[in-house]
């Protein structure tokens, strides 16, 4: 039984929910893993258990059962379903690109990427090895942060030291000059 109590305290109020006698926050909805499924109803109220399973021929890595905690988070680790009989080619990473965690080059393996703070990720944050033995996409790349390139001008041109990156004050003290044509 779900019961929510509204408490009025002078001008402010608070909402406390009791789910089967357990007080707390709802958990975010769990998604089915790649090559797997949620087994039965996966409720998001505290105390609820969600069972997760992999498709036939895929092995489980992670937690097959997760419980919604009163603080609004799930116990355990996300489930990954892997088929070691199907492999993807090893990834070659562009300069500065790093992987966030393990990357399995077998069907169901997910690779997550990141860039240094001074760069921006161009492309997907993650890719996965498909059950056909190919990657879902090419790895992303890292682009250095800096001033954006100056655009061509209608009826004019830029001259001087245009395009130098790394000068935070470039737009205010630029040696570039605009010549009207």
From TrEMBL:
Protein name as it appears in the record: Sushi domain-containing protein
Domain Sushi: 25-83, 86-144
Organism of this sequence: Tetranychus urticae
Signal peptide: 1-24
SS bond partners: 54-81, 115-142
Keyword entries, A-Z: Disulfide bond, Glycoprotein, Repeat, Signal, Sushi
